[in-house]
């Protein structure tokens, strides 16, 4: 899906103190948040609906939203102006730099929602559920590594199931049509659009 460029996005995001913009050093989790709590990370948070709602409902958990596009993260920052959420911080950076930005075993859970499917075989390593990325998640998460994954893309879902299995993850939850199987689901912007079109939402929760 084409991303809309937001005029003066870079200039506008500089005013927000709940954003860490293109960090180059490791993030100190204890300095990010006033209170020490479990830390949940969403990689590719988009416009922020999912993680903002999680942070609102769960003040006893600290959340980090990870998004590489400035125009997209700006839209999340604007939404956050409506709330006082000291348990949520946003990071504008690329997920390929995860190991450089997070200490070992500093994250308690990872959310992957509607990631780019990168359907061409030559782009497999860019998929956020590739073995390369899974091994980086294992480095930065406490044990067991816990990942929740949602997508509307059947091909990506099947690929991810095979990769989780190959990397010896245990499947604790799985749904081929999440919105039929569960109620009170915290959704993303893409999820609302796709489910309103009648598309099934695929979901899996794994641990290692």
Q: Describe it for me?
A:
β2 (39-43), α3 and β3 (62-67) form a beta-alpha-beta unit. The chain starts with 8 loop residues before the first helix and ends with a strand. It has helices at 9-13, 29-32, 49-57, 70-80, 98-101, 131-140, 154-166, 178-181, 189-196, and strands at residues 19-21, 39-43, 62-67, 88-92, 109-113, 146-151, 170-175, 202-207. An eight-stranded mixed beta sheet has the order 1-4-3-2-5-6-8-7, with helices on both faces. With 208 residues, it is an alpha/beta fold.
Question: What structural category characterises the helix and strand content?
Answer: alpha/beta
Based on Cα principal axes, name the global outline.
globular
Report on the biggest sheet: 8 strands, mixed
CATH class bucket: Alpha Beta
CATH topology: Rossmann fold
* Distance between the amino and carboxyl termini: 32 Å
Summarize the model shown:
With 208 residues, this protein is of the alpha/beta class. The protein has helices spanning 9-13, 29-32, 49-57, 70-80, 98-101, 131-140, 154-166, 178-181, 189-196; strands spanning 19-21, 39-43, 62-67, 88-92, 109-113, 146-151, 170-175, 202-207.
SSE layout and pairings?
Elements lengths: L8 H5 L5 E3 L7 H4 L6 E5 L5 H9 L4 E6 L2 H11 L7 E5 L5 H4 L7 E5 L17 H10 L5 E6 L2 H13 L3 E6 L2 H4 L7 H8 L5 E6 L1
Parallel strand pairs: 1-4, 2-3, 2-5, 3-4, 5-6
Antiparallel strand pairs: 6-8, 7-8
Features:
208 residues, alpha/beta, Rossmann fold, eight-stranded mixed sheet, 9 helices, globular
